[in-house]
Every structure is written in structure tokens, then in C-alpha cells.
Write a structure and sequence with these properties.
Layout (H helix, E strand, L loop, with lengths): L6 E5 L2 H4 L12 H6 L21 H11 L3 E5 L2 H4 L10 H16 L3 E7 L5 H4 L9 H16 L5 E6 L1 H9 L14 H23 L1 H4 L2 E7 L2 E4 L5 H23 L6 H13 L25 E4 L3 E6 L9 H5 L1 E4 L16 H14 L4 E6 L13 H19 L4 E8 L18 E3 L8 E3 L1 H15 L5
Parallel strand pairs: 1-2, 1-11, 2-3, 3-4, 4-5, 5-7, 6-8, 7-10, 10-11
Antiparallel strand pairs: 8-9, 12-13
Helix pairs in contact: 7-9, 8-9, 14-15
Amino acid sequence: MFPPGFAWGASTSAYQIEGGWQADGKGPSIWDTFSHEKGKVFEDQNGDVACNSYELWEKDLECIQQLGLTHYRLSFSWARLLPDGTTRTINQKGVQYYNRVIDDLLACNVSPMVTLYHYDLPQALEDLGGWKSPGIATLFDSYAKFCFQTFGDRVKLWITINEPLVCATLGYEDGIHAPGLEERGIAAYLVGHNMLRAHAMAWHSYDSDYRATQKGAVSLALNSDWLEPLNPDCIEDVAATERDLIFTLGWFAWPVFVTGDYPEMMRAAIEHRSKKLGYIGPPRLPSFSKDDPTILGTADFFALNYYTSQKVKAGGDDEQTLCMKSDQDAEELIDPSWPICGVSWLAVVPYGLRKLLKYIKDTFNDPTVYITENGFSQMGPLQLEDVQRCEFFNSTILEVAKAIQEDGVKVRGYFVWSLMDNFEWSFGFSVRFGLFNVDFSDAKLSRTIYQLGQEYAKIISEHRNSGQTQ
């Protein structure tokens, strides 16, 4: 059902699980700053302690072993390694922590996949302009090279940046993620542009200086819903769906996998709207210069984060604001027949993942794919016997198998979000995605496996024992 060596994993990120926000020389990140402001996060919660993985790593490792994972995806806290964001100051306590995590994983025959950036920019760099500043790409490259040099002898799978779409839109367009800016229609395109430049610089650094000896692979993690027209017979709905996919997945995947530049449809739509609104200034969607690194080909695999699907209906735009959705001129809808899992935006559509995988194969030159995040949440009263989540999960795994067997998609790994319940950004601790429950009311932050975790462990064991994984 799954190819030999298939990666069965779970994912986490530093700010969401580590805690220790001021421990042992760590610098503040933009999420430390943002979550300490009133009204930014559910019930003013924050990640100061979170799952306290900085002190309770052994407990996390026990969870990983209990599941029988072959791979574990974690992220490094940039500010824990480099407190001011630059290699001028290296925090050896941070280096020791991640060395310990990596070495413990390998000792248990678990391969680490490391994300360099998962939303938590050092505050010191945000004070200098952050992702809006062109110089951030060089600073990120320096950080990446430090990590490759320090940990790359043992880490063979790297993600440079997690979900640049989310970073750009929620952090700089809607203001609901750190750093909380609402510069509609302007900053998000600039941030996305600098993230692509930063990613490409880091990929080229790895390719030229480390690949020959370390023999690893580097990509960036792109999130996308599956989208389909509300009315497949309506030309406008079909066109709106195509635009929506271009403005989400295509925004970052097109430059990396197809042409080295943004989709022409995207650039034309933005320029058209700018003229319509009388916008005066440099193009809202920047152009890559001759001094920028080559973007095309800067991914050794396609890393996909998938959660849900949407129906798309063509609609009018908002003449009052230069915002992202007005460029798309489409309205996204949840099909009422799709079950909702936890949060209101998460309709569970397992077949959507299969269709999206096929779209990626056909559109982006048939890449090797790792599903780096896929998850199912719960809210309200705790349910350790989470039968509904198990049903969704089993259906999704089946759709991944169909994508491999029937559609010929080269899926090489599947990572559940998340290893354990954690700090879910603006939702705080109110949303639970874990394979393990974390009791945040308990000072010991005890971890207890959900039924979903038990189901996942069985699936991994069955495939390992059948010889379908190495």
C-alpha cells in the first residue's frame, strides 16, 4: 500500500511546545511579544510554558517511541539559537538542547525533519523591519548555514520556512498572527517575496556547501486547501477556483517548481486591481531582480500541509481595500455535507487531499511529496476516545494510499499534526490536535495517548511488519 522507506511521522513547532521562553539565554520572538499583548490570543493565553518540552523532552521522546514513528518533524527556535537573530551571538545552551533532541531521536531510530522557521522570528530582527526588509533574506541565510553546519551531519530532511502564505497573510494582512500588522494588500506580497528570496538563498547555500558531504534534502512547506467550483457547470465559478489556487498554492509553488517567477495570472490580476483602485506606487507584487538567487528548482521535494477543502463561488470584490481576497475575486464556502472537526474552518474532506496531491503531480512536474502536516482537532470537553477523529484519520490515510497506487503520486511520507496538544496560535489551548493529550491544568503537564494515537501506532506497526517500510 505504501512504498518501502515511507516516512510515518508527527509534527510540532518550537513556540507551540517548548516553553522556556526566557530560559538559558533565549531571546524573545515575535510570538512572545504578540501573545503578551491583551486580546491577541484566546483568553490571553501564551506559549511561555506551553508543553514545556524544553524541560520535558524525555516525555516527548517516550510519546514518539510509543507511536513507533519513523520520523519526527520539529522546528528550531531561531531566537533560542541566535538570541539577536544573527550569528554574532550564539547561545550554546540552545545548541545543546537541539543536539540532545537530534541525538536521542537517532538513538531510537527516528529520523528528524527540521524546520528552520515556523512563525517565530526573533524580535530583534522584527525591530529592524523583519520580513518586510530586503535584508532579512541574508540574515535567514546566515542562520540556515549555521544550522546546516552545526546539525547537518545528522539531519537529512530540512524545511526552510513553514507556510509562507500563512505568515504573510495572517501576520501582515489580517493581523491575527504575530507581528499583528494589518497593511492590507501591500505587506503580505512583500513578506512573501522576501520569504521566497530567503528560502532560495538557503537552498543554494546547502546545495553548494553542504549537500555533497551531508547528502540531505531541502524544501519549504506550503499549505493549501483543495478547492473546487461550487457549480462545476458555471464558467465563473471554475475560473474563480483556478484563480484561488493560483493565489494560494501557486503564489509560492509556481516560482519554485514551474517558472522561477510568480504566475502570470496572479501578477495580471494584481496589476488590474491596482489600476482599478488608482493605486500609485511600486507594483504591489514585487519582481525578482538579477541580484536575487535563482528561485526555480530550489526544492528537493514538495512539502505539503493540508487540512481542509473549500467550494469556490465567484463573487464581487471590495472596492474599499487592497486586500488579498479582493485580488482573487472569489468567495470560499464550506460544503454543509462535510463534517466539521473542532474549529469552524476545518471541514474534514479526505478525498480533497487525494485530489490536491493529483493536482500537485500534474501542475508541478510530478515531484516527490511529503505530507508534512495533516490534522484533526477537537474542542470543548476532552474526549480521549476520539472515535470521530479516528474515522476521519483512517479515511484520509486510505485516500493517500489511493493517490500513490491509483494516481501515481510519489508520496514518500505522512506527518500528523500534531504529536501532542499544544499552543494553537490565536486559538491558544482551546483547540486540541494531538495524538497525545496534554493536561495543561497539571503542573506536570502529563501526556496521555488518545485513541487516535493508538490507531496511528497500529497503522505504523502493520506497515513496518509487512515490510512496506524500512
